[in-house]
Amino acid sequence: MSSERMFHRDVEEERTRRILTDPEKTLPALIFSLTGRIVCKITRRKEPLPWQFSLVVLAIVVQLPTLLVSNLLHETEQWVALGFRWMGFIELGLFAMAVARFGIFYLYKNINLYIVDAIQTQDDLKDLQQVLKRAWSLKRAIYFTLVFTFFWSISWSLIFTFYIGQFIGFGLFTGTIIFALLMGPALYIEGWFFFFIIRIGYYSYDLNETSPAHSEVIWRLSRTITTLLYSIAIFIAFGTAMIAFNVWAVVLGILIGWLPTTIYFIGSQISISRIILSAKWNTLDRIQEQIKTFSNGDITDKNNIENINRLMDYHERIRVTPNSTLNIATGFNLLYQLSLPLIGALLANIDKVLQHFDLINVIP
């Protein structure tokens, strides 16, 4: 790489690192930060509060509108049937925002420490900057949250209206909206995670030429993605456990929870495999060029033949190195572990599932 290209790459690296030092601009982080500033203003505290304190404050505040509306309208029947579950749902939405905040901070930190150095070209660093800025986009995040809130409020309310045989009430409907407003920013970040892992698969990295799959950056990237995957799966497992009593709620959970998580897992492995294969073929192509050079020489020359044989052995040794950090058995085992709560929820409602799909007639 020329000194000029190296200079431009270093400039882009510095710009990328400046973005990575400010994950507070993402919507979940801003919500916690704003809550902390409001509390500091009310209490006249000068030092900023940790975001965990904001989490505790929000855990109390987000319950108040539902309780207030339900109490004012005397919606006792709906509250007895679903009230405590609704309180759990709302806290689950707040938990999702906390998971999203953890994920974005964890990802930014690991990109800054381990990934940026390994990216080889300034164009890839420029593209990474644009990808990272998408996580900041308040306009996109708010728009997505509003659309999700509209969809969720209607579908969730209808599911439980049919479940209890009457309208869930304006109090619980208010709680549904609050849950969606909390969940929306988290889902936006989860969608951004998927966009991120797809894009990084197209970058060029400085990898171990003899076995790219065993490079440090690949190991770091794989561990980071897997940690994010498990953090999302833990949240979805809690959610699945809470809705296991309603088969249609489980179906909705599959659509917005388990299905995207499975796609996220598969997409991450494809991206990592693409990085490894790209590096492997760069090395193999260079070896093939050298083999071609020797083959164009005197093929009766003993040294020439030995060089060709050594290069062919080296070519084969690199070719058979792993193309991924995950083998099939490990992949299926991971997917099985992630799907255990979902399997449990479906088994708990097996009679309802079969009845809805007209596979058996359930005697009441």
Compact overview of the structure:
This protein has 13 helices and no strands.
Fold blueprint:
Blueprint: H1 3-20, H2 27-43, H3 51-61, H4 64-72, H5 76-115, H6 122-136, H7 138-164, H8 170-200, H9 216-242, H10 247-295, H11 302-319, H12 328-348, H13 350-356
Low-confidence segments, given as residue ranges, are 359-364
Q: Determine the oligomeric state from the structure.
A: single chain
Biggest sheet statistics? none
Shape: elongated
Distance from first to last alpha carbon: 75 Å
Q: Fraction of residues in helices?
A: over 70%
> Overall pLDDT, averaged?
82
Number of helices: 13
Going by helix content, strand content and strand pairing, the class is mainly alpha
| Percent in strands | under 5%
Strand runs, count? 0
What Rg, in angstroms, do the CA atoms define? 26 Å
* Helix-strand string: HHHHHHHHHHHHH
What does this structure look like?
This protein has 13 helices and no strands. It has two domains: 1-204, no CATH class; 212-364. By secondary structure, it is mainly α. The longest helix has 49 residues, at 247-295. 80% of the residues lie in helices and 0% in strands.
